[in-house]
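As agreed, record passed on underneath.
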Amino acid sequence: MSESARDLARKLLSGSEAAADRYSGSAPGVSATTAPRTTTAPRPGRVVRGPGKQFADHPGVVAAAAQNATIAALTEQSGLPSPYFLPRTSPNDHVINSAAGELVNYSAYNYLGLASHPRVVAAATAALGEYGASASASRIVGGEIPLYHEIEQRLAGIYDVGDAMVTTSGYLTNAGVIGYLLGSGDVAFCDSLIHGSVVSGTQWAGCRRINFRHNDPESLRAVLRTSRAGFDRALVVIEGHYSMDGTVGRVAELAAVAREYDCAVMVDEAHSFGVFGAGGHGIREHYGMAGADVDIWMGTLSKALGSCGGFIAGDADLIGAMKSSAPGVAMLTGAPAPSAIAAALAGLDVLADEPERLIRLWDNAKHFHTALRERGMDLGESQQTPICPVIIPGEVQAGYVSATLLRNGIYAAAIVAPTVPAGKERLRFFLTSEHTERQLDSTVELIAATAATLDGLATVPG
């Protein structure tokens, strides 16, 4: 580790502390608890912040401000653009044109390179011309266009279920579906690594949330044995492909355990649809499951399909109810943009017509994982999928490796606590079918070389 890197780390840490002071919420020389002039006495014990100060000392605001100041200090000292909100002037492909120059990109979910595929772009453009830029209303009152019915029937057929529904957002799909289906007397049993959108859904629902160990059917069975009887409706929520760790959900086994205890099952396929299965039809195809083995299949259009939005598939009556009355998912929510649905339909067509993309994707995943492990890199529990975490313990250490890669034309952002546990900070690489073997090999060499210089950085005082 060079002395300049140590100096930068020290400044980074001290800058973070200063930022916390700087964003404490009080103007210089003014107490945050000084009451403004008012004719109504405050309740005893209530803090009076004054006009414009209601959220200045909010923990989330203070933490974000301190983090942003830290990032600003790092970029100022290094002379590099920030890796966050990095301006770019090209599609989010395996190579991007950005404020930092041309970069080999590992920060896009564009697994099959469909977001800029000519057929996908042409379909979106045609729909834009025919139906306009926005649906401009919810479907129940704004009228239907054929695109919605077409994609929903295709998705229902892929999952072998009664119906499907497309939505404007994958995050809101999870949150809204759980918020609609569960209530105060109900429970969601969640994999311990479940996505934050599911957590938001349980908060919206007001139900209990009980976690079981990641990908562990016996842990789920033990939790259900002791807790299931205390609730009315119960939903087991798992993922097909976990986005922080690159692990494959043991969906078939976990669904079978859930059925033993009268639980419904919901599977989040955000990162597995278009990636798993011989035809890219997701984790159901991967395991050869029946559509009815799971009650709610959820996925996104914004990753492998190269579009934007989410979807659910399941029993026709269940989907019909959510289409007409689920807040935040369909009711009182603008329908997905017609161009986004047309793009996703074209993505499904390309997925069927160009199976070599899926083959290249998995070949790249195997090559990248193998090369990193041969160089002694810690890949956590990843299972040689197109999501590859490289564990770099320490916030500063992970940030340093990410910055070094960026300086050398490689874009892979650091993921730090609290998003991942402290000590498990990492760089996360999303592989695509379009990365070349040369790009993968040069990335591996730079990661290994940079990681070998980190010992000195560990001594920087915190």
In short: The CA atoms of residues 42 and 272 lie 53 Å apart.
